[in-house]
Specification:
This protein is of the alpha+beta class. It has helices at 5-8, 80-91, 109-114, 138-150, 181-194, 211-217, 235-251; strands spanning 24-25, 33-42, 52-62, 67-72, 99-104, 156-161, 167-169, 172-176, 198-202, 221-226, 267-271, 277-279, 284-288, 295-296, 301-306, 316-319, 324-330, 334-335, 340-347. The longest helix has 17 residues, at 235-251. Bound molecules: calcium ion.
Length: 348
């Protein structure tokens, strides 16, 4: 068990006045007990002139201890996290908690309601909108509130992603290479505690607009995930998410009980550079030649692209640039120029 407040606690944070937001929470985050409520944001529109958006939020607070901010629905078409966080709120006895758990199971709620990656209101991709703007679009206003009113309260943030409609993954919990190596080590230990089949250390080439960097630059513990995908979830991926969320909370001492081992030990892996990714330069029908979870060798064919209008033309073959585990793939049967095809991870 570690004490995440030991190195990144902000004892004076509650005395700082956060910047004004158009969002009002319907519940008190500081009162003991468990409650669901909403972040309320006015949204005047054609079908509701004086309407508002109500983003579900839950709090469990008991005794003293760190504050965890648990987020899903950053992208609206990713489901394991949305399910696990609803379950966590509804099934966790208050007395099992030491500290505070804030649950935001559908952060980009307009996108969650339409089952789309981005917001149907402003097209906003939430994970490119951070730290947000108080006077911006709906997506930017939500990001701004999360940055200044929720991340500011938290000692650790868990942001649960999956592949959505266009990607699928071998389930993994991930952290980043950080200049603060002590923080990076703590994040790696938390990702390993999650207990997914893979724990990944990623080099984020450009984290502009991402929640990840906002949390990490504040010196706080951050873990993210990719838990399968293809626009839905499976019994297996939901089991991994449910165990993982509770494991991270147990690891930091907020939730009672021991970390529960995964079905196999977590394989710690790395995606060191852009050669881990294969991108299509052609449009057509996507024929995968390797499935998720299979080992590939450098130079091995991984996919063929068939030309729709030219059935007699030889398909283009794409190859892996590296030896490793095929950890991510493109999902739709058709590919476009510039689409991601596969990604490969290597052992740490
Ligand atoms: Ca995502």
């Amino acid at each position: 068990m570690i004490d995440p407040t030991a190195e990144c606690g902000h004892p004076h944070r509650m005395t700082e006045t956060p910047p004004a937001s158009k969002i009002s929470p319907s519940i008190d985050f500081d009162a003991p007990g468990k409650r669901w409520g909403a972040l309320v944001l006015a949204h005047s529109r054609d079908d509701s002139a004086w309407g508002s958006i109500r983003i579900p939020i839950g709090v469990i607070k008991n005794g003293t201890g760190p504050t965890a901010l648990l987020i899903a629905g950053n992208h609206g078409d990713e489901y394991e996290g949305q399910i696990a966080l609803r379950r966590l709120m509804n099934e966790t006895p208050v007395e099992d908690v030491s500290g505070t758990i804030i649950v935001l199971p559908g952060m980009n709620f307009p996108a969650v309601r339409t089952g789309t990656r981005c917001s149907p209101i402003d097209g906003g991709n939430m994970n490119r909108a951070f730290p947000g703007r108080a006077d911006g679009t709906i997506t930017q206003i939500i990001a701004h509130y999360v940055t200044h009113h929720l991340v500011s309260r938290a000692d650790l943030v868990l942001d649960l992603h999956s592949g959505g409609k266009t990607l699928d993954f071998v389930p993994f919990a991930a952290t980043h290479r950080l200049p603060d190596t002590a923080l990076a080590d703590r994040a790696r230990a938390a990702a390993q505690a999650f207990g997914a089949p893979v724990g990944l250390v990623m080099l984020e080439l450009d984290d502009t607009g991402m929640l990840d960097g906002v949390v990490e630059r504040a010196g706080k513990l951050f873990v993210t995930t990719e838990l399968a995908g293809a626009g839905s979830s499976t019994a297996s991926s939901n089991r991994i998410a449910w165990r993982g969320v509770r494991n991270v909370l147990r690891h930091v001492g907020i939730l009672a009980g021991e970390v529960e081992p995964g079905e196999a030990p977590t394989r710690m892996m790395d995606m060191p550079d852009a050669s881990c990714f294969v991108t299509s330069e052609h449009a057509g029908i996507h024929e995968p030649l390797v499935d998720l979870g299979e080992e590939v060798l450098a130079g091995q064919p991984v996919a063929r692209i068939h030309f729709l209008e030219e059935p007699g033309r030889e398909p283009v073959v794409y190859h892996s640039e590296r030896d490793g585990l095929l950890i991510g793939r493109h999902i739709p049967g058709l590919v476009k120029t510039g689409d991601f095809l596969i990604s490969v991870a290597v052992d740490l």
